[in-house]
Amino acid sequence: SYAALRDALARELTETDALLVVGGDGMVSLAVNLVANTHIPFAVMPGGTGNDFARQLNMPVHDLDACLDIVVRSLRTEPVAIDLGHVTSTRDSSLSTYFACVLSAGFDAFVNERANRMRRPRGRSRYTWAIFFELVGLQARPYELTVEGQTRDEKAVLISVANSRNMGGGMFVTPEASITDGLLDVFIVRPVTRLRLVRLLPSVFKGEHIGEPEVHIERAHNVRLNSPGIVAYADGERIGPLPLDVSV
User: Fold this and answer.
1) From CA 245, how far away is CA 144, in angstroms rounded?
2) Nearest-5° Cα angle at 2, 127 to 248
3) Whole-angstrom distance, CA of residue 97 vs CA of residue 28
4) What residue ranges in 1-41 does DSSP mark as E strands?
5) What is the pLDDT at residue 94?
6) How far is residue 153's CA from residue 184's CA, in Å, rounded to a whole number?
7) Residues of the chain where predicted confidence (pLDDT) is lower than 70
8) How far apart are the first and last CA of the chain?
9) CA 217 from chain center: how many Å?
C-alpha cells in the first residue's frame, strides 16, 4: 500500500544520498512528502499517466532514453531547492501534506476523481474523456476564498492553487507559475456555460487562456478554500474535504 511504502522509505532515508522515483505524479507526491524540509534530493523518471512534474522540469516525457540521461546527469550535479505547496485542514489536525504541482478544488477535482477511476484509455486522453463526462453535470459552485488573509465570496466552475505550470497531463493552467518564486498561483474560472468551457479547454492545453474574461489568476503565499461538498486533489492524490489551508 501507499502508506506501507512511505513508511518503508522513511526508515531508509536516514542513510540515503538521494531518492529516485520511477512513475507519475503520484510517485512524485510520495517523494516530496518524504524529503520535504530535508537535505535529501530527489529525482523523477517519468513513467505515469500525467507526468506533470516531469513536464515542469522540461523533461521529454515521451522519450524515456533522453529522460534517463537527464536523471543520471542530475544525480551527479548539485541539487536545486524548489517550492512545495503545504496543505492543512481546519477540521482535521492530522492532515498535513505537501504537493509539487497543483491542488484542485472544483470541476478539475471532479475530473481527477473520475480519471483515477478509469482504466481506459491510457495517457493524457484519459483526462480529456473525464473532462467531457463531467461536463454533463457542470455547474458553478459557491466558494469562500481567503487570499493573504482577505476573505471574499467567489462563484466558480474551476479553482486550483498551483505551485507549477501543469496539471491533467499537460494542461498549462498557470503558464507563468514557477517552482522557485516562493509564491502560489490561484487559478479561477468563473461561471461559464458548457459550450464556453469546451471552447476554453483547448486553449488551456496551450496556455493561451490567459486574458479570457472568465479566467482569473493571482499570486499569494497563503490561501484558504472553503465550499460545501468539495473534495480537493493534489498531484492526482485525494487530499480531503474543504475547508483547507494552502501555503507555499
Assistant:
1) 12
2) 70
3) 13
4) 19-23
5) 92
6) 19
7) 1-2, 5, 122-124
8) 28
9) 16
